[in-house]
């Protein structure tokens, strides 16, 4: 029969193996040159206006073996909005919409990642726009994870994701032309990340 000491020793060994197999998340960098933050806004039912942000960054802790343990803080320069029409962009930057002088950053802080499949997940977190913070949920799909064949990354594994979601701008206080210009804003992000360490 196994003694209590042997049972405790075996349990400790199993825990040690499990801990080694699932290391803590490590810092990853955002490849800004291959990341896009885009959105669409319905214009009076006639068409969809497409836009994007050109300046952003992220603090990422990623565990490829247990993605549910990962976390991200994504920060967007609100004034970097671009809808390919300068007069409209100037309007969107003012107090009717993003009020970028008082609220220069849009920030998403993850709180939970629920895996829904081998390469899919629900990303749950707090989104802050013009000083208002609300919980949002985004659907994440891993596109590919493999060593980069390109120079500069020294064979580090690059992982790419597609992130989709929808927010209601009026819930953040942006009620200008609500009901005419779309309230619900579909969001699509394409993201590449790689480990900071070689």
Tell me what the structure shows.
The chain has 198 residues and is mostly beta strands. It has helices at 4-21, 86-93; strands spanning 26-30, 36-43, 47-53, 56-62, 71-77, 81-82, 105-115, 120-129, 132-147, 157-168, 184-195. The protein has an eight-stranded antiparallel barrel. The chain is globular.
For the largest beta-sheet, the strand count, sense and barrel status come to: 8 strands, antiparallel, barrel
Strand content: over 45%
Q: How many E-type strands?
A: 11
Number of helices: 2
Overall structural domain count = 1
Task: Show the helix and strand layout.
Layout: H1 4-21, E1 26-30, E2 36-43, E3 47-53, E4 56-62, E5 71-77, E6 81-82, H2 86-93, E7 105-115, E8 120-129, E9 132-147, E10 157-168, E11 184-195
Antiparallel strand pairs: 1-4, 1-11, 2-3, 2-11, 3-6, 4-5, 5-7, 7-8, 8-9, 9-10, 10-11
Describe what is shown at a glance.
With 198 residues, the chain is mainly beta. Helices cover 13% and strands 49% of the residues. It has one domain: Lipocalin (Beta Barrel), CATH 2.40.128.
